[in-house]
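Human: You know discrete backbone vocabularies at least as well as I do. Show me how you would write down a chain together with its backbone fold. No explanation is needed for now; the record alone will do.

Assistant:
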Amino acid sequence: MTGSTISRTSASRTSASRTSVGRAELLSRTARATDALSLFAEASAHLRRLMPYDAAVWRVTDPVTGMMTAPIRAENLDEGGCAVYWESELFTDNVNLFRDLARAPVPVAGLRQTTGDLPARSTLYETFMRPRGFHDELRAVLRVGGRPQGHISLFRAEGRPAFDDAETRLIASVITPLAKQLRSFAEPDPQPQPDAPHGPGLLLFDATGTLLSFNDDALAYLDTLPEGPTVPSPQGIRVPSFIQATAMKARAVAEERDRGQARARVRNRAGRWLVCHASCLREADGGPGASAVVIEPAKTSEIVPLIVDAYELTDRETEVTQHLARGLPTGEIAAQLHLSPHTVRDHIKSVFEKVGASSRGELVGKLFTEHYAPLAEKSMTRVRTD
């Protein structure tokens, strides 16, 4: 073995050791985060030291529909590109689509890696990245239990090398821990919340994602949402980018360019769960018209799956819990699920331990109450990391 070979081997080991230590520090710091924004900030700060990048977007997603929701952390990205980004994602035959990555064995991919260093094959590169001086994108879906909890988009500017295999592996190695942490933030701390004082909020968007009109209830709901990336409107209203994306998703589904639901749950600053759902209206000739987005309080049935997932209940434990909520005794639950009473009691004990409940009443109250205490969500703003 020559001296130069020994030197390269030593450097490689040193780099691997530094990455291992940095990864451990990243996971240690993010494990102490109390909300999604602080998790994103910690993860990004440590990740930049291991694999530099010039801009990024960290998003929470609805784990049931996969739709982007709030909170969102955008780094070194000016406004005005959200509609362009999601038009490429929803209306074109692009590469590395988030919906495809969510089902991939490894939900991480670099643009230049995927296209064989021919990024012009991507409409996102042509319409969004190149005009902003970005050379490559590495995107990932934070996934656990088969459900997406968030998205990451990392961008490198012209002059930097493309993301490589080692960096892809690094991102892949932190996906599950970060997704589990995001999932845990759905756990409720029940406290009575006042009833929502407004009716459904309604916003209408045209085919380009531009706001056409809205009602007063919509404005009231918008005022309660966490701060974050927004898009301007002719009316002077700052529209959260995830709401615009929900409207565009509805149009993509109507045009049969996409599948799924244009629906996203979001927690407002008071801790109340809201649901934003959209549908594309039809013109007189049957063609797609404006997209209507409705914002209203989420029903318990829409939130329970998120809460159950946050507590990491198994499918069987979820079934037992649903029967407990109906007030069924152990023997009847056993009969309906074709289990022994002893097995049912074991499941109940496990659920109590995971949820931190000491009685059936407390368990049902934690999982099925209509009101949830606020989480310590910090304000969301665009940040400069330079």
Summary: The chain has 14 helices and twelve strands. Residues 3-30 form the longest helix (28 residues).
